[in-house]
Amino acid sequence: MRPFPPELLLETYVGIDHFIPAPELDLWARKTFLDDDSLLFNEDHIHLLKANIGWLWTNVPNTKGGNIIAATAEIPFFRGNAWQKGRQLMQMDEWFGGTPNFLIIVHAPLAQEADDIQFTARIDHELYHCGQKKDEHGAPLFNALTELPSWTIKGHDVEEHTGIMRRYGPRGCAGDTINFIQYSQYEPEIEEVDILGACGNCLK
Fold this sequence. Notes:
Elements (H helix, E strand, L loop, with lengths): L18 E3 L1 H12 L18 E6 L4 E2 L2 E8 L7 H15 L5 E6 H6 L2 H14 E3 L18 E3 L8 H7 L8 H8 L13 E2 L5
Parallel strand pairs: 2-5, 4-8
Antiparallel strand pairs: 1-2, 3-4, 4-5, 6-7
């Protein structure tokens, strides 16, 4: 059963900005995508078994370039003077018991409206942004002190202009475009889905 946002973010506190910790999202995501017994197990997220991910529901609207943001993933960072940083660190500690490796924020009203497949694809998408750094040979990097993965926010595998595709074809494109096109010829592993709503990391 997928988690739904708290009712207070949908009705009672409409007009009041709220961010609410969502440990149920973490449990669901791990059971759905990181448990190899799950039908939706995703081996691309294996490195996240060791990640501390903080999840938040929010009712705060967020847009970028005229697009509504449905969810976003980030690595928490703190800026400002000593008091501002201290306040931010205290908030992380109150929400999660410390600062997580990643923070994923999900817009509650859009999550409520999404069907199960749309919601699942949206969360899967955000997890793809939670990456592990790699060296110049593509080997995963680890923190020398903690021996945990070195974390990073990952961009998309395919980032190219449609004009380049039109003029030069897939071999003239950047990223993993050729594989992207190859996979487009196959039936999807999971039912086709319109994610509905943009990802904050995708709107640069």
